[in-house]
Amino acid sequence: MSPRVPGPGVPPGTIRVFDTTLRDGEQAPGAGLTVAEKIEVARQLVRLNVDVVEAGFPASSPGDFEAVRRIAVETKGVAVAALARCRDGDPQRAVEAIRAAERPHLHVFIATSDIHLKHKLRMTRDEALKAAVQWVRYGRKALGRAAEIEFSAEDASRTDPGFLLDVYEAVVGAGASTVNIPDTVGYAIPAEFGALVGRVVERVGRDAVVSVHCHNDLGLASSNTLAAIQAGARQVEVTINGLGERAGNASLEEVVMAVRTRPTQFPGLATRVSTEQITPASRLVSYLTGFVVQPNKAVVGGNAFAHESGIHQDGVIKNPLTYEIMTPQSVGLTGSTISIGKLSGRKGLQKKLSELGYEVDGERLDAIYRAAIALADAKKDVTDEDLIALVEERVSEVPAAVQLEGWSVTSSKGGRSSGNVFLVVGGEARASETSGNGPVDALFKAVDAAIEPVLGWRPILAQYEIRAVGEGEDAQGQVLVRCRRSADSGPGALVVTGHGLSTNIIEASLEGYLAAVNKLHGASLPNVSGAYVSRGTLEGER
Ligand code: KIV
Ligand code: ZN
Fold this sequence. Notes:
By secondary structure, the chain is an alpha/beta fold. It is built from 16 helices and 14 strands.
């Protein structure tokens, strides 16, 4: 049988790309984003031309509700999905968050495997089936005929297949237009998973879009997703850089580029993704979440198009097809042509950023322009990497309750370092001096001493990393810090990422530390508009 086409206005042969970076991706421990950062990622997903942006799990926290609501209001040209458990309260909250979207997409789920039913939900199969039908029916009624109502049977790949098919048939009867088959714990093997998908397509594929959602615990998430497409799935749930719970989800760039690179394996099928936007999307998500992309990661790793051995270099020079199955340009790695110096204008910078995959204008362009010109004074060449770092820096700006007015540090071989900071904390001038194991330690401790009496907490440093942006002695240092509040502990504690960028690595370190402090402060305010999207552990969720 031929499966249902994936939605009104979508041509037959389209594989609908459902991006869950902002929901499942953000569930990766320590990958939390602010509302403003989630909106920035959503904008990039629109440029990437995905079909659905799963913006979050509104019932999980006020911050996530607000992020989903704002993405639904502000993001055009894409369906906006929200996740909800099949229990009173969740679907209502999700509907409220996405109602204003151009194309609302409600995603309800309940576990169906005996392991989950017995040990987690303490429900019978029959109770789970009834809850699934009840909340799908609710979603259809609340959002109307035009909306997309998706049902996921959590842990589908470990569910008794007979029961699973009955559940899918029942929810389609109740109004589900998409049924999703999650390989929640990454347990499936491609041929086996393809066969399961084939059975679901056979049973309900005429009336609903069959979707898959694969996790990477055995490194098979992308392979399982591709096997599912071959078996008739017409929606794939994926994340940028494969971000996600535990070992992550199927990665968007791998699935999309496999379909594009091997058309004979997917006859008549294609996604609508603008693949040139893959690299900017990958960089943005990596930067904002602080999850560095491994150099040998397929498609977006730093070495994905690097040829080290002489034989390979020789082949690629003679003809890139010898060792490259896709071009770097096709995923947005452009050999850019305009260089930026002290005399460059705004227009030139804007064009250059556009070549690098970033569409920037207005105040943000002005701010990047000022920073680029200042940088051109401080170092010989402003490289592509410098510009990318400047763009990224602007993206995660947060309102600064704590501002740095000045600092000084002394340090010598074998001795302790001593640091002074001058800050403004909530409008109040504060100065402090402390010693530490090194200059950065001394200054961070000085910040702690200055802010704790005013804010009532100090940051606890969980991670500190520094890397050079580009090459050369005058390269900028980009610092990443991860912190939590001293007042919070345990597995649910909010961990935030702060970045700093400067040709002076001590300055970059302080900038990064204060960026994290300001995010933690924002998250502790009752007004959630700029708040961090934190998520407690929900009963019934993995
Ligand atoms: O992995 C999973 O089962 C999920 C569902 C909520 C779709 O993320
Ligand atoms: Zn998942």
